[in-house]
Amino acid sequence: MNKNQIFVIVVAAMILTGLGVSSGYWFAARVHSHSSSTVETTPNSASPKSERKALYWYDPMVPAQHFDKPGKSPFMDMQLVPKYASQADVDDSVHIAPQLTQNTGVKFATVETGRLDPVVEAVGSVGFNERLVSIVQARTAGIVERVYARAPNDVIPANEPLADVRVPEWYGAQAEYLALRKSGDVQLIAAARTRLQQLGMNEAQIVHAEKTGQPQAVITISSPQAGVLQEIGVRQGMTIMPGQTLARINGIDSVWLEAEVPEAQTAGLAIGTKVSAKFSAWPTREFKGRITALLPELNREARAIRVRVELPNPEGKLRPGMYARVRMNERAGRKVLLVPTEAVIATGKRNLVIVADDSNHFRPAEVKTGHEGGGKTEILEGLQEDEKIVVSGQFLIDSEASLTGVLARMEDSAKPNPTSLHEAQGKVEAISTDEVTISHGPVPSLGWPAMTMPFKIVDPKLAQDIKVGDRVQFAFHEGDAGVVIDRMEKTGAAP
């Protein structure tokens, strides 16, 4: 929550008594001696006959305490200030003198239409690209004659020797092939060459035997690609069998960057979305990539979805385990109503925006918000284009023109209307201090059929004399807390 939102919440609660502690004395004295500068007066306010009647008197430093006559404050060394009826008591708005709004630096903005380009920010970690894995296996039995100086996590180039292996079966097949080459029988030569391939010799090894004219007793096994030697499973003198894994190599020409994004922010993300990443090792450099996968499983504890990004790594600087700050630019959508995010007051139950009109009246407007990004918030309901709203400086609306009454009336309007209650009859199946389960008949006002369901109990007194098995007639409403019982009477005792 930013500073301005804190100020706005103060507006909703008491809207800062007289411009704050430091200016309360100055403001109270000014109101007391020049009340026409902060409250509405009639053109003849200077005349005692036309002076408005005060509702009560109060100390601006303790506005909650009201007094029925003027005098000196029992809390501070100052005179009590009169409170007059204002337009806020009539039309859910407050009036503030224009010079006061100017002096206190109130900032305004206009509701505008534009495109919202949300930017999702997250922290990601680098891992191996599992698509660049090479497995080196033995295709025939043999004996390891030599293992080159290699260890797990070594970074090796392509065609780097790993081990020398003596393969007796290859030696005999090579000797047979070379002898047949001298016979000139094309079919036999082709068959013998194919046998070498089936035994696992690659083309380079066969060509080498053809050039030298000598069978190779020992074969050097090399890495098929550049990368990290993650596993080496051979030691000098050991016997290897067909299918045995000798080495596992993971390429690092590209890496995976995985980040967890809260599920509420993933609606605009898709495969192909552009991503930029920054690493602490290179704070001025951005690494560019794209989303290649939105992993299907949700992290249930963090309520987040893992996003996989593939980053090119031609220089090999990005290593698994590194952390990065990730920015994902969602695709631009349709045009929407936008307001500065700092203008939105989040009260917990609703979102409010202070709307200003040309006559220096201010009123709270309840809004329904959508996506947020780039310091802007999407407005789905509650405002219209070109309306003037307060962005900062809401604290100037002091106790002389408090929004407290306005917001209280808004809260009252959200309470269930007795005329919107729904009547039903039924039998109590279970009951606790805050919930009762009832098998009730049809509810015509809602089109509900007969069913058994739980209801919330706001007032425990409603269930004092009711037991399981009792038949009851009750009235309920649907609200934010669920289905809530407002009235319940017993019509029959449990058998």
Number of helices: 8
**Beta fraction:** 35-45%
Intertermini distance: 57 Å
Query: Which regions contain 5 or more consecutive residues with pLDDT less than 50?
Result: 1-50, 86-90, 398-404
Give Rg in angstroms: 40 Å
| Protein structure class | alpha+beta
CATH topology of the largest domain: conserved putative lor/sdh protein from methanococcus maripaludis s2 fold
Helix content range: 10-25%
Major beta sheet, specifics? 9 strands, antiparallel
CATH class of the largest domain: Mainly Beta
Task: Give the overall average pLDDT.
Answer: 78
What is the CATH architecture annotation of the largest domain?
Beta Barrel
Total beta strands: 31
Number of domains: 4
What would your notes on this structure say?
There is one protein chain. The chain is an alpha+beta fold. The chain folds into four domains: 1-114 and 339-415, conserved putative lor/sdh protein from methanococcus maripaludis s2 fold (Beta Barrel), CATH 2.40.420.20; 120-129 and 252-329, Beta Barrel (Elongation Factor Tu (Ef-tu), domain 3), CATH 2.40.30; 133-250, RNA polymerase II/Efflux pump adaptor protein, barrel-sandwich hybrid domain (OB fold (Dihydrolipoamide Acetyltransferase, E2P), Beta Barrel), CATH 2.40.50.100; 418-492, OB fold (Dihydrolipoamide Acetyltransferase, E2P) (Beta Barrel). The protein has eight helices and 31 strands. Strands 4, 5, 6, 21, 22, 23, 24, 25 and 26 form a nine-stranded antiparallel beta sheet that branches. It has a six-stranded antiparallel beta barrel with strand order 7-16-19-18-17-20. A five-stranded mixed β-barrel has the order 27-28-29-31-30. α5 (168-183) runs antiparallel to α6. The longest helix has 16 residues, at 168-183. It is elongated, with a radius of gyration of 40 Å. The two termini are 57 Å apart. The model is unreliable at 1-50, 86-90 and 398-404 (pLDDT under 50).
